[in-house]
Amino acid sequence: MESPDRSAANKRLYREVNARIRAVAEMDVAGEPLEFLCECGNPACTTTLELPLAVFDELTGAPGRIILSSEHRPSIEESAIIAQHNGYLIVSDHA
């Protein structure tokens, strides 16, 4: 089983990658959804999630929220599902 510290580091890395995807999109995409990484923290997860930019911007504006594939279920640390959408969840991450 993966340590909580490693999982938290993975989540930070996935958020950084997603932020870079967002920055590139600003130069390139006109309102179309983009593929972002699932922020579950599992290093074996390769799931991408299609989100409108406005949803990603709202997510990153609220501290402690992450996006997960709807196939994943939050762990105890990530107990509060804020919203469910087609293909992804917005979760309050307390890890």
Shape: globular
- Our estimate of the beta-strand percent is 25-35%
Number of domains: 1
Q: Main beta sheet, described? A: 3 strands, antiparallel
How would you describe the overall organization of this protein?
With 95 residues, this protein is an alpha+beta fold. It has one domain (4-92). The chain has two helices and five strands. The protein has a three-stranded antiparallel sheet with strand order 3-5-4, with no helix packed on it. Strands 1-2 form a two-stranded antiparallel ribbon. A hairpin with a 2-residue loop joins strand 4 and strand 5 (88-92). The two termini are 15 Å apart. 21% of the residues are buried.
Please give the structural blueprint.
Elements: H1 4-28, E1 34-37, E2 48-51, H2 53-60, E3 65-69, E4 80-85, E5 88-92
Labels describing this entry:
95 residues, alpha+beta, three-stranded antiparallel beta sheet, two-stranded antiparallel ribbon, 2 helices, 5 strands, 35% helix
Compact overview of the structure:
By secondary structure, this protein is α+β, with helices and mostly antiparallel strands.
